[in-house]
Amino acid sequence: MFGIIISGHGEFAKGFEKTIELVMGKQEKLEFINFTEDKTPLDLEKEFKDAIERIGEEEILFLTDISGGTPFSTAALMTSDKLKVISGCNMAMLIEAVNLRDDQKLSESIEEIIESAIDGIELFKLIEIENDFDSDGI
Q1: Could you give the number of structural domains in the chain?
Q2: pLDDT on residue 104
Q3: CA nearest neighbour of 122 among 99, 97, 91
Q4: What single DSSP character describes residue 69?
Q5: Taking Cα atoms as reference points, which of 33, 38, 22 lies closest to residue 89?
Q6: Helix, strand counts (H, E) of the chain
Q7: In this structure, is residue 82 part of a structural domain?
Q8: In terms of residue numbers, what domain contains 29?
Q9: What is the pLDDT of residue 128?
Q10: 10 Å Cβ neighbour count for 38?
Q11: Residue 138 counted as domain residue
Q12: Residue 75 is assigned to a structural domain of this protein
């Protein structure tokens, strides 16, 4: 099993925490860290290191909101063979990561996790349906 840390600006992580619990129940080795305006990058780094310790797994995946933002950049500085960072986190990506982490190594899961994020994006298209009813409603 690999651990997962979700982080982003404002209450980003908290929203994912509530949603994943609703959809999949309480998950172990899953941490949610918000980067709010009262925190510095050093505060965030400490929270990341504390979360890594709590998780205690050899492999950890960071999912962050936006590439180049402080949560992404702070996590990226910690990247290694056993610690990976993906930006653009969405629910499809998180659900896929949670589903894969029991059966696969992190390195084997990365491409599937990214694909699920892409596949989870869809534009709703309204389709007009022809009315086959007679004009008198029968």
Answers
A1: 1
A2: 94
A3: 91
A4: S
A5: 33
A6: 5, 4
A7: yes
A8: 3-119
A9: 85
A10: 6
A11: no
A12: yes
| Eight-class DSSP state of 50 | H
- Report which residue type is found at 33: I
Confirm if 9 and 71 have CB atoms less than 8 A apart: yes
Instruction: Name the pTM for this structure.
Output: 0.88
- Amino acid residing at 38: D
Question: What average pLDDT does this structure show over 28-42?
Answer: 97
Mention every residue, 6+ apart, whose C-beta is less than 8 A from residue 4. 29, 30, 31, 60, 61, 62, 63, 94, 97, 98, 101
What would the pLDDT profile of 85-102 be if each residue is shown by its tens digit? Answer: 999 999 999 999 999 999
Q: Is residue 87 part of a domain?
A: yes
Contacts of 94 (CB under 8 A, 6+ apart): 4, 6, 16, 20, 63
Q: What are the distances in angstroms from CA 118 to CA 54, 61, 81?
A: 30, 18, 24
The CATH number for 72's domain is 3.40.50.510
Query: Rounded to 10 degrees, what is the CA torsion of 88, 46, 76, 12?
Result: 10
The alpha-helical segments, DSSP class H, found in 1-138 are 12-24, 41-55, 70-76, 91-100, 106-119
35 contacts 9 by C-beta, under 8 angstroms: yes
In the sheet that holds 83-86, the strands lie side by side as 30-35, 3-9, 60-64, 83-86
pLDDT value, residue 134: 60
